[in-house]
Amino acid sequence: MTDLNPADANLAARLPEGVLRPVSDAYLDEPRGRLHGRAGLIAAPRSVEEVAAVVRACAEARVGIVPRGGGTGLVGGQVMPEGPLPLVLSLERMTAMRGIWPEENVLIAEAGMTLHAVREAATGAGRAFPLSLASQGTAAIGGCLSTNAGGVAALRHGTARALCLGVEAVLPDGSILRDLKRLRKDNTGYDLRDLLIGAEGSLGIITAAALRLIVPPAGVGTAMLEVPDPAAALSLLALAEGRLAGGVTSFELLSGQGMDFLRDTLPEVRLPLPQARWSVLLEVGLPEGLDPAQALEGLLVDAMERGLVRDGVIAQSGAQAREFWHLRESLPEANRRIGAIASHDISLPLSDIPGFIRDADVALRQGSDLRIHCFGHLGDGNLHYNLFPAKGRRREEYDGARKALTEQVHEMVMARGGSFSAEHGIGRLKVGDLARWGDPVRLQAMRAIKAALDPLGIMNPGAVLG
Amino acid sequence: MTDLNPADANLAARLPEGVLRPVSDAYLDEPRGRLHGRAGLIAAPRSVEEVAAVVRACAEARVGIVPRGGGTGLVGGQVMPEGPLPLVLSLERMTAMRGIWPEENVLIAEAGMTLHAVREAATGAGRAFPLSLASQGTAAIGGCLSTNAGGVAALRHGTARALCLGVEAVLPDGSILRDLKRLRKDNTGYDLRDLLIGAEGSLGIITAAALRLIVPPAGVGTAMLEVPDPAAALSLLALAEGRLAGGVTSFELLSGQGMDFLRDTLPEVRLPLPQARWSVLLEVGLPEGLDPAQALEGLLVDAMERGLVRDGVIAQSGAQAREFWHLRESLPEANRRIGAIASHDISLPLSDIPGFIRDADVALRQGSDLRIHCFGHLGDGNLHYNLFPAKGRRREEYDGARKALTEQVHEMVMARGGSFSAEHGIGRLKVGDLARWGDPVRLQAMRAIKAALDPLGIMNPGAVLG
């Protein structure tokens, strides 16, 4: 630590012993490489008390803090490329499971525990933690909560917010909020938990959380069903919900464009419905006494009679189900290899989705040869609506069009009462979108809360509100 | 309006035409008669714009506002017995359903719509709104949200907070937050919705809400099962959840004391398990292909083999199921007729419940002849733990002991990581409890938020934070 500037050296001397780490790229990147962070110091505290001590020292020194979990966020909330050098506060050493109560369906995890580790711990106790994301091997549970992560089972179990009973957090003044309750109901004042969840580290640092587990369903079934169009997919969802009493865990929309991308980039991925222009990956969790494959068979027959499904494959084994999911989870990698011009994480009222997909398709293709890959968590109204170069062209050729394309997509989404950030958050990449599209009254209230809790503005400066 | 004092007359003149109502007791009471409110003016605006105009006028005149829905709250949030005379803002004229989208499971209701009316509207469209409370005929949906109401189906569907997608609200400065989104996922900044929900009108007035509906399950089954003790009831819950894949909608604990109260006060209520010391009222909602009575039969046999259930009755008809629910819903009336010394709306970590019930029973009976009626939403860890006079004695004889008894109950609850207000909120009756038991860091953050959003302190003065 000999090459620190005097201000950082002064701050470093006031931190708990042994928390500093060498500054390295591992703490300064984000997955898509759009932003590169900077840092004066990297601190990796071992306890909530050490986190509080770091925050207090930063508050005194007026140094910004960028909290960092697994670093998998997609909107740059974990990297600060501009402004005075911040301290990056990594939760990597707070990885303990503080306790598990299978009989109450509760687990208390420290923020640095990976989502994968939380899921494994729950499974090891005969329970399940139903938050499920492609990046779960790296994503930390603290980051999942701070960004209110969504994923493929939110339809049934909600986003991260719905799976959290209580948090421990360090507030911007260094005080420790101890609210790790294992309670389903607690109406004793303002909902600070849900305020910290989704605040992307701009109101405090979540250091641990009491998480809600589930008893795994007796039977799980998985199917891929070809649908004539997105409207039929939505009718299929309603039909499935009616037949299965809330038993639909996942309902993912897949498109022919995605199949083409997989063929081109990951030819080893098997495609059960290779010709489908639109299809749905459906997972159900059902009670004892119902055979999941039979229940899905019944749904398939019913849906085909109604013209909602053209063809379908019901997984006959866990291996086949994993194969379906492998296809779904390979889509982001295929996208990466093709190279998007622009990606959009949007949500819409469910009944607006068919109209949006139709109209956006027409509007965006007008005078353009781009390819549209639209897929995602249809059951949640959450689409990943991504634009790609025509075959044989490079994304750079569209550099001049990128901004206008995103503007056009977001405009169509907002006109239909949708959201320009369904599950990824604001971070730094969508600060401009929030300023542009956010309700002014809402923004004013957010700024008032930020100023009240973080008057020095040291918590993740520039994130969310800019 | 001729008998107004000059200040109120001045304010009245600045309100939208026709919003004033005569001051009457109907706006000043609460169900248990513990507090009686006062008011300078009663206003019943017809639109969010009129609510905003009233709030702006009150802000200018520095007059406090007490929002009022159905007036069924149990902690005095709707009545202000002390301080400068407030304006009571009744939502009684905002009762429109603004829209319903059955295909997306969404309904938008104005705040004054009763919970019953919301439920009927959902049912009329082939859907269901799963919030269910004894007072639903009177309780307004705005009040249900402002107090984050719980009820008998929170185990499966969550409290009011979990059933709300977006709100329209008037903030303390009279600005209108327009956030009536019909989206499942929207990560665009701080969670103001959940901050307003449960704030009991102290941060703003919810004027409308986008509510989440469900597709009703194909089959519903209801049973009353006698259990040896509360610990067995909890094991039964875990067994049922494992067998039924999250299909348990309600799991209510009933006690022999409650049966005795019903015998004494409402002898017409039929008791299916008249001798049971502890029993459970269980409701399940199941997929097509499973007969609910058969599924409950299977659970009953399994549970009896494990020694978790001694006896049971499975409803063979809707009429019988309603009879079981009638019993459950008659308990509050029986309690009223007996006359409680003290009532407690507590929650505990599930695995602490048997120990709490055992220890509290011993502690409270020491040197006392009181009767304990412990019942409630066991699946949520939420008990109504109420103390009654010995048979033949009057509650007034225990007046001197009341405060110490409540203190003792809350102390035992808090020592086990529980809550002194699980579903009723703070209102005015539990302000002292919040100050006493609330985490100081949490209270400080709450006060900072209150000061930031309501610097004049006009929104429900004295509620929640005192």
UniProtKB/TrEMBL annotation, chains A, B:
Q: Which residues form a coiled coil?
A: none
Cofactor(s) recorded in Swiss-Prot or TrEMBL: FAD
One Pfam short name? FAD_binding_4
Q: PROSITE patterns in the record, alphabetically?
A: FAD_PCMH
The UniProt entry's GO biological process terms, in alphabetical order, are:
respiratory electron transport chain
MF terms in GO: FAD binding; oxidoreductase activity
In terms of Gene3D superfamilies, this protein maps to: 3.30.465.10, 3.30.70.2190, 3.30.70.2740, Vanillyl-alcohol Oxidase, Chain A, domain 4
Keyword tags = FAD, Flavoprotein, Oxidoreductase
May I ask which residue range the UniProt record assigns to the signal sequence?
A: none
Q: Does the record's keyword annotation contain Coiled coil?
A: no
Q: Which InterPro entries match?
A: FAD-bd_oxidored_4_C (IPR004113), FAD-bd_PCMH (IPR016166), FAD-bd_PCMH-like_sf (IPR036318), FAD-bd_PCMH_sub2 (IPR016169), FAD-linked_Oxase-like_C (IPR016164), FAD-oxidored/transferase_4 (IPR051264), Oxid_FAD_bind_N (IPR006094), Vanillyl_alc_oxidase_C-sub2 (IPR016171)
Q: Supply the EC number(s).
A: 1.1.99.-
Q: What class of enzyme is it?
A: oxidoreductase
Span of domain FAD-binding PCMH-type: 35-216
Q: Which family does it belong to?
A: Belongs to the FAD-binding oxidoreductase/transferase type 4 family.
Q: What is this protein called?
A: FAD linked oxidase domain-containing protein
The organism encoding this protein is: Paracoccus aminophilus JCM 7686
The lineage, from the top, is:
Bacteria, Pseudomonadati, Pseudomonadota, Alphaproteobacteria, Rhodobacterales
